[in-house]
Amino acid sequence: MRASIILTLSLTVVSAVHDYAKRDCSHDNCLRAFIGSSVDAANFCATYTTTVLTESTVLKYPIKGVNRMLVPFSYTAHYFYFHFGISIKQHLIKLFSLQLNVLYSQIGPAVAACTAISLDGISVPTNSSINLASLKANSIVTFAGETTFAFTNSSTFNPMTFGGKNVTITSVPGAVIDGNGQAYWDGQGSNGGVPKPDHFIVVNKMTAGSVIENLHIRNWPTHLFSISSCSNLTMRNMLLDNSAGDAPNAISGGLPAAHNSDGFDVSTTDDSTIHDNTVYNQDDCVAITSGNNITVDNMYCSGGHGLSIGSVGGKSNNNVTNILVSKSIFSSLSKTDTLEFSNSIVVNSQNGARIKSNYNTTGFISNITYSNISLSGISIYGIDVQQDYLNGGPTGIPSNGVIIQNLLFQDITGTAVVGAEDYYILCGDGSCSNIVFGGVDITGGTVPSTCNYPPSGCPGL
Predict the structure, then answer these.
(1) CA separation for the pair 85, 307 (Å, rounded)
(2) CA-to-CA distance for 367 and 335, rounded, in angstroms?
(3) Tens-place pLDDT, residues 56-72
(4) Nearest in space to 284 (alpha carbons), one of 225, 234, 363, 328
(5) Residue 419 CB burial class (10 angstroms; 0-12, 13-18, ≥19)
(6) By percentage, how much of the chain surpasses pLDDT 90?
(7) Across the chain, which distance is largest between two alpha carbons, in Å?
(8) Burial level of 125, CB count in 10 A (0-12/13-18/19+)?
(9) Which of 222, 225, 219 is nearest to 194 (CA)?
(10) N or C end of the chain: smaller count of CB under 10 Å?
(11) Could you give the dihedral angle defined by the CA atoms of residues 44, 46, 50 and 56, in that order, rounded to the nearest 10 degrees?
(12) Which residue is catalytic, options 78, 91, 259, 305?
């Protein structure tokens, strides 16, 4: 017969039916079966607390070698709830008298064995990361408290990695993930200076209905999310705040301290949605360099470079297709999938809607819709399509190796500032076709707009 013991912070033991004999921690069958050695068992005994939380945060570890035994517990050690058939009452009292937080080093075993993991107040040491790349299918990982990262003097590591099938990464209200960007920011971003991780969070092979949601992330060193080889992924309801990097610091030469701080960098990803996110940063709010059937909806983007396709060309995958298409306009399209930027606000940014391809490369950009986008405080281009990028910057000389076709800019309105261009289209010879504007009205830029395609010129001119 199974019984239950719940231990609270005061170490009150609530039991049912049985009285349990003493058993020393290092010889307890439960821990020995769970951990596998007395050395590891000793570490286990010294790293858990007993504050009771809700059962929704419980983790479940199967105990090998013990019949019908399951030990669910919160990975942050805030909740312990044992179902068992052996005598461990005195050991538990001894174990739970140690009021210590969970160690960072215990994340690995939890990922390997659990499908519900709570990470509370994790402090990541130098030269270390939070590796959630191989989560078990259907796992739920919940961040709580403040997650912090020590400085690592390297550009070859990823502070966080996510991956898995039908997994959810989320947080409780008030939780914050702080990337310690102030230790890295020097105004140069990934172009040099202090070594920095190229992306703060690498999202790879998250598939089958996976969700990243409800995260509050601040102060990432450079690019935030790298999203690659994913499908059926949703990223939603996040506050991504790098605004502390807007101001110069002592080593940024008068420039904003943070640089190259993209919000979402998407490649080789299909059938996915990014929606209802707020991004304060200093580079692209969203940048899609390859992928199919992606929707970006209801975004608030401030301080960066806008909602971008590209730059495309010169990479292993150079196709961006099906980002929402109105079939009533592009009636010749053979696919019903869509890739869309819609219902979003872009403020105090360099660009609003932007598509860029690299000079003298090949690729394919097709079936892209920007719709219902509100702009204000745009400092370079309201709508921008250009095919002249070389070494990360424009040259003014376009090439035609990347085909751009079937673009719809619908209901994009707002204002640019003095010194900006409302519209800028620079296509290579014969490489652009079927670019349509409808309900577009951007004003305020004082540099004359220039559009070498479509033949009718820029909207309103």
Answers:
(1) 58
(2) 9
(3) 333 333 333 333 223 33
(4) 225
(5) exposed
(6) 62
(7) 88
(8) exposed
(9) 222
(10) N
(11) -30
(12) 305
The alpha carbon of residue 182 and the mean position of all alpha carbons in its chain are separated, in whole angstroms, by: 20
- Say what the pLDDT of residue 379 is: 95
Confidence at residue 151, expressed as pLDDT on a 0 to 100 scale: 96
Parallel, antiparallel, or unpaired: how do β-strands 3-7 and 13-14 relate?
antiparallel
Eight-class DSSP state of 231: B
Residue 30, pLDDT score: 41
How many Cα atoms within 13 Å fall on the side-chain side of residue 370? Answer: 29
Are the C-beta atoms of 216 and 176 separated by less than 8 Å?
yes
The residue ranges of DSSP E strands in 199-304, in sequence order, are 201-207, 210-213, 216-218, 225-228, 233-236, 239-241, 264-267, 269-275, 278-280, 286-288, 291-297, 300-302
What does 39-82 look like in DSSP terms, one character per residue? HHHHHHHTS-------GGG-EEEE-TTSTT-EEEE-TTSS-BEE
Q: Left (φ > 0), alpha (ψ -120 to 50) or beta: where does 164 sit?
A: left
Residue 239, classified by CB atoms within 10 Å of its CB into exposed (0-12), middle (13-18) or buried (19+), is: middle
What pTM, to 2 d.p., does this model score?
0.76
Please identify which residue in the block is written with the tokens 């306009």: 329
CA 163 and chain centroid, separation: 11
Residue found under tokens 């705040």: 241
Could you give the CA distance from residue 210 to residue 315 in angstroms, rounded to a whole number?
26
Q: Which residues of 294-319 are buried (b: 16+ CB within 10 A; e: fewer)?
A: bbbbbbbbbbbbbbbbbbbbbeeebb
Q: Using DSSP, state whether 355 is helix, strand or coil.
A: strand
What the chain holds in terms of domains, given with CATH numbers, is 3-95 (no CATH), 116-451 (2.160.20.10)
State the Rg of the chain over Cα. 26
Interval 329-354: pLDDT, tens: 322 233 334 577 878 889 999 999 99
Is pLDDT larger for residue 310 or for residue 205?
205
Give me the percent of the chain exceeding a pLDDT of 70. Answer: 73
Which residue is listed with tokens 């259907």? 138
Residue pointed to by tokens 């052996």? 86
